[in-house]
Specification:
Blueprint: E1 2-5, H1 13-21, E2 26-29, H2 32-36, E3 40-43, H3 49-58, H4 61-70, E4 76-79, H5 81-84, E5 89-90, E6 96-97, E7 105-108, E8 117-122, E9 124-125, E10 140-145, E11 147-150, E12 157-163, E13 166-174, E14 177-180, H6 188-200
Amino acid sequence: MIGIIDYGMGNLRSLENALDRLCAPYVISDDTAVLKDCDRLILPGVGAFADGMKNMKEKGLSQFVIHEACNAHKPLLGICLGMQMLYEESEENGRNAGLCLLQGTVKRMQGDVRIPCIGWNLLEKQQDHPVYKRLSTRPFVYYVHSYCATNCREEEVYGISRYGQNIVPGLVGKGNVLGCQFHPEKSSRDGQAILNYFLEVV
């Protein structure tokens, strides 16, 4: 059973549709007792970092996620804002602490480009990782974001995308933790392959 962590931010319908296509059983909940019984956790989200972390803390979900990822070694997938919250902090609307599961700081993208970034972009391989065996030769994925992770550990960045002068960590992770700045549930076959990898292997 997959536990989708509901902290009150983001439209979950597209993620539900993607999991339905994969015939993957899931539950959407903000109840840590329910989520604790799940085999894998997905942290989705759309919106502002500060609001997301505030909701997570108020619902008792931040410490739960840290415990499950670090102590129980439960597979965890962060998507979009959910991926950003895996990092140490964000500079969106002031400095706000994250879950500290990955090293780095989330900052607003720079340069003469349209922000937010909305659309398809090439995911460029940075590290050898088993997920690439499931992807096409030139995987394109769908982004909707204004901020991206910076000052990351090289070994924690599996794939990047380029947007103007910005090098965007698109696919990241460490051990049982995986993060997508893009939306795999909206990224056609390659996105589905990433979700399938998380469900089967991580």
